[in-house]
Amino acid sequence: MLLAPAGPGPKHEQLARALRRAIRDGVLTGAVPPSRRLAADLGCSRWVVTQAYAQLVAEGYLAGHTGSATRVRPMGGAVAAKEPARAAPPRYDLAPGLPDLRNFPRRPWAEAVREVLATTPHTDFGLPEPGGHPRLRRILGDYLRRVRGAAPGTVLVCGGVTDGVTSVCRALVERGHTRLAVEDPGWTRLRRAAEGAGMTVEPVPVDDEGIDAGRIPAGVRAVLVTPAHQFPTGSVLSPRRRAELLGWARDVDGLILEDDYDAEFRYDRRPVGTVQGTDPGRVALFGSVSKTLSPALGLGWVLLPPQWTVRAHPPPVVDQLALAGFVESGGYDRHLRAARLRYRARRDKLVAALGPARLSGVA
């Protein structure tokens, strides 16, 4: 055990610090060495040791009694930090942004991972390709066209929507963009991602029809929107506003960053298609499995305009290929269908319970 006095101050204070640290770290327990022996071991006077022991007795780290050995108090005595009590889990967790993690498809996902490990060529287990594994990129492109009405484009695999927005914003900065219009209110995390990439955020108010392109400040040539399900208002970008937004992008030669947030779960209206599907040359479409499977997977994508090249750090290859197999086998579709039924039933019960309050705008 290293207890040599060190640091600033008198030697007895230095030794007290070393002893205090050893007690806190759990290195020193039980009886401490007799003062005479420790002084001999350290090459210092016995007075240095007795003063250090006396200080720690006063602080509650040690307990000393005449005629018996000085000992470390359990848990460091009165000054030991107590572990804060954990709050009881809420009876009903209504926090946004997370799926019901109890329903994560453990068995199908484990089967997808086992299939990857059993059948993937060893050459695929090297460093991930910059844009993502070609198989997952192809499968995601097909899936987005089939389910979300997206147009063909360049699929970039990333660590989630925040990671994708960060990567695209960095590319925008490299192209000379300095400002990004965002919905107000909107996701704070994505605003911070844009700012972290070097862009200045310009809030634009949102109403029942979504964002109003006419209120985007002059000189701004990029905008971040959530047309399918605006957070936190729940509004959907109206057809008129969609046309105006695309017209704005063409007029200023700009780019629309479309976060396809929560598009999989709408119960108050029919699902709407992507803005990207109307003009793929002006829109980058972002998505992930964070709200459908789990944010712990760190799997997302960006469907970029064909002429765009963006650098990103792709997720681990095994996870990418597991998602590819899960989607291609139909497991992802089955999981989403079951999740929609569960969430719809819970949503309907909540709306019924809130009925007497006569709330409006419940999505």
Automatic annotation (TrEMBL):
The organism's superkingdom is given as: Bacteria
State a single Gene Ontology molecular function: pyridoxal phosphate binding
Q: Could you tell me which SUPFAM superfamilies the record lists for this protein?
A: PLP-dependent transferases, Winged helix' DNA-binding domain
Instruction: Report the PANTHER family cross-referenced here.
Output: HTH-TYPE TRANSCRIPTIONAL REGULATORY PROTEIN GABR
Q: Which residues form the HTH gntR-type domain?
A: 9-75
For this protein, the record's InterPro entries field holds: Aminotransferase_I/II_large (IPR004839), HTH_trans_reg/aminotransferase (IPR051446), PyrdxlP-dep_Trfase (IPR015424), PyrdxlP-dep_Trfase_major (IPR015421), Tscrpt_reg_HTH_GntR (IPR000524), WH-like_DNA-bd_sf (IPR036388), WH_DNA-bd_sf (IPR036390)
User: What family is this protein classified in?
Assistant: In the C-terminal section; belongs to the class-I pyridoxal-phosphate-dependent aminotransferase family.
Is Nucleotidyltransferase given among the entry's keywords? Answer: no
One Pfam entry name = GntR
State the protein's name: GntR family transcriptional regulator fused with aminotransferase
Which controlled-vocabulary keywords does the entry list? Aminotransferase, DNA-binding, Pyridoxal phosphate, Transcription, Transcription regulation, Transferase
